[in-house]
Structures are given as structure tokens and as C-alpha cells.
Amino acid sequence: MAHVGEFISWLHSHNWDEFPEFTFPGDIPGWCTPQMGAMLNYAVSECLDDGESYLELGSFCGRSLVAALSNNDAHAEVIDPQNLKVADKDSAFFWNRTVDDNGLRDRITLHRTTYQSLVDDLPTIGVFLVDGDHSSGQTYEAVTKLQRYLSNNTIVIFDDYLIYGGHGQSVHPDHDVEMQWPVKRDVDRWTMENCHNVVPNAHTPWGTSQLIVHFKR
What we know:
Layout: H1 4-12, H2 34-47, E1 53-57, H3 63-69, E2 76-79, E3 85-86, E4 89-90, H4 91-101, E5 108-111, E6 125-130, H5 138-146, E7 150-159, H6 182-193, E8 198-203, E9 210-215
Parallel strand pairs: 1-2, 1-6, 2-5, 6-7
Antiparallel strand pairs: 3-4, 7-9, 8-9
């Protein structure tokens, strides 16, 4: 089981305005802030138990992945169809460049697909970054499907908790559209339905916010 108590204690030992910052190697496209990078790095470096892996749902160009895997020997599972564009190139071009430039290839298993189409089994997960499709229903369905791989005391980090949905979302067919906060609605529903297993612990102020959740079995 991940050492979630140690992580939460570390998190709350810092003032949000003076939080540690991760220094990214080079110019990696993406929205992972230095503070979020430091949080990911501590969780993966200090709180994973033996035999546990880090799971990243949505990796874009690998910015958060580099932060998570720096200065440790952890293994990562990545689920991402890599179908987004950066300038005139697919995000896969930048993701592969990031992984190779930082010597991470042998420590990552890439599932180049959506969570809906995932057929491979995953190892036991101790830290889980949820940063996939932010459209209504997608976060709820993704975590519901993937939670069977989570260990006892998994650290779950929901990125973009307060992102604005707006028009043009790829809404999950079993869900209604939420214009204001689609990720928040999905996460709040999941935590409520799993209230005996889920303890929300922190709500960060960086970017469009992250919600830190303690998942128990």
C-alpha cells in the first residue's frame, strides 16, 4: 500500500504560496505547474510501496510524467491515445522526445488507447494521476473502470478539478452535459458512491486545481 499518511503530512506541511517547485528539464509543452510537479515527484519517489506502479491517465507531451519519474526508479503505466496536436505535430512526437531525452523509455509501459478501449491488465497502482478527457462523464467512467487496479491507500490526484467545460465536449453517452465543472461533478459523484473507500484530503490552488483523494480498500 502507498504511504498515503506520509504524503498528506508532507503536503500539509507546506504553505500553498511557498510550495516546493519542480524544475522541468527543457521546454516540455503542457500545463503541469512546478508545484504540481513537486507534488507528483514526492508522491512517486517517497510514497510508492514495493511492487506498486504510477498510473497516468492522460500524459500529453510527458511533462507531468518527467516530474513523477525524476530521481527515482519507479515504473509508470500511461494510458493516452496521443491524438492531440501541438502546432503541426501529434502530441506523440513530443511525448516520445520527452521520454527519450530523459532516459525513461525502459520504465514506462504506454497503452496508446483510451480507457474505454484498454484491454491490457495493469499492475497494482499506488499513485494515480487522472488527467484525461475532461468532458462530462469521462472522469467518472474512467476511474470507475480503473479503480480495480488501485492498491489499498492509493494516492489519487484529479487534475483540473475546477476546469470549465463549456461547449464542444465529448460527453460520455451515459451522462448529461455539465457546462460549469464537469470534472468536479464526476469526481464528487465517484467519491460519494465510494464514501467508505475514499477520503478527499486536499484541494490545491494551482492552475484549475487538483483534488487529492485517499483510496482505501
